[in-house]
Write a structure and sequence with these properties.
alpha+beta; GIY-YIG endonuclease; globular
């Protein structure tokens, strides 16, 4: 199977109060969001109930997506907030499912 047309997603989830941000990477956003929302992913996102997709970036390279994820995780909360605000100023749910 060729990966030439495969997309990877770097995404940010938050909880209902927007006090917590979770950053992840996946090749199947719909499946990954389902896992988060059903509590199938033990760890940080489940503990803090990060279910709301508020930011998303696509990449055609898994290496680039992972690099971007690490860059975002290393950044300040202020920079993460600014990034979400630039795409989604109301911090609305971006996932239609």
């Amino acid at each position: 199977m060729s990966t030439a047309n495969k997309l990877y997603y770097v995404y940010m989830l938050t909880n209902h109060t927007h006090r917590v941000l979770y950053i992840g990477v996946t090749n199947n956003l719909e499946r990954r969001l389902y896992e988060h929302r059903q509590g199938l992913t033990p760890g940080f996102a489940s503990k803090y109930r990060c279910h709301k997709l508020v930011w998303l970036e696509e990449s055609s390279s898994i290496e680039d997506a992972i690099r971007r994820e690490k860059q975002l995780k290393a950044g300040s909360r202020q920079r993460k907030n600014a990034l979400v605000d630039s795409l989604n100023p109301g911090w609305k749910e971006l996932a239609p499912y």
